[in-house]
Amino acid sequence: MNTNKENNSLNNKIVYDLTSFTHLDFPDHLACIIWLVGCNMRCDYCYNKDIVFSKNGTKSLNDILSFLKKRVGLLDGVVLSGGEATSHNLVPFCQEVKKLGFKIKLDTNGTNFDNIKELIDLNLIDYIALDYKAPHYKFKEITHNNNFKTFENTLNYLIQTNIQFEARTTIHKDLLDEQDINFIIDDLKEKGYNNSYYLQEFLNTGDNIGNIQASKSSFDAKLLSKELDIVFR
């Protein structure tokens, strides 16, 4: 075990920000959210552009551990988000978080398969929110990333391992229409996904990577397939 390497990963300032309390982001848990810098995607609708483009954060993971030690008994979960959290080596941090007794949720775009698999194989993750960004035929157009196949490998792996996870998609009618969402539903169902499928409305903050505005037309939920339980957020 390379202790020096692990210590370096904990000392590097890769945390953009910390949300000290949430009861919405980790199902049935009181948690904090750790926002990690950097992402390998440039999704047009993304409003976390400062996090995505940041090279350095304001805090280290050791700083977060110091915070968590004071929250034992007050919080029961930690959410790893971003940016794309799995762009970083999270194993040493997650091991320390587990020693403190917290459960861990990971928000991910699924394109760093090896890192995700290692975290799961080491039993360091309790829940995953997997972003199904777009059907394969629109994936690169929306994310500006060509790793749909790697995402698909992650999705299949999560289904096979039976880890608790949800699939979710951000909807903006100018980018994804009802037919696109039905394609995703059919794909999820065919792969063996039977949990709820979460649709998140585009949040128009006026500042996003693609400089897009609110959709010109509204999304019609009545046109969506009934093959999965759909939950709008």
What is shown here, in short?
Helix content is 32%, strand content 20%. By secondary structure, the protein is α/β, with parallel strands linked by helices.
Task: Give a written overview of the molecule.
The protein is of the alpha/beta class. The protein has a single domain (3-232), classed as Aldolase class I (TIM Barrel, Alpha-Beta Barrel), CATH 3.20.20.70. It has eight helices and eight strands. It has helices at residues 3-11, 49-53, 61-69, 91-99, 113-121, 139-143, 148-161, 178-191, and strands at residues 15-22, 31-36, 77-82, 103-108, 127-131, 165-171, 197-201, 230-232. It has an eight-stranded mixed β-sheet with strand order 1-2-3-4-5-6-7-8, with helices on one face. The longest helix has 14 residues, at 148-161.
Properties at a glance:
alpha/beta; 8-stranded mixed sheet; 8 helices; globular
Percent range for β-strand residues: 15-25%
Secondary structure tally, helices: 8
Judged by helices, strands and strand pairing, the structural class is alpha/beta
Task: Give the averaged pLDDT, no decimals.
Answer: 94
Q: What is the CATH topology assignment?
A: TIM Barrel
Portion in helices: 25-40%
What integer value in Å does the Rg equal?
A: 18 Å
| Total strands | 8
Tell me about the largest β-sheet.
8 strands, mixed
Between the first and last Cα atoms, what is the distance in angstroms?
Answer: 42 Å
| N-to-C SSE string, H for helix and E for strand | HEEHHEHEHEHHEHEE
CATH architecture: Alpha-Beta Barrel
**CATH class label:** Alpha Beta
Name given to the CATH homologous superfamily: Aldolase class I
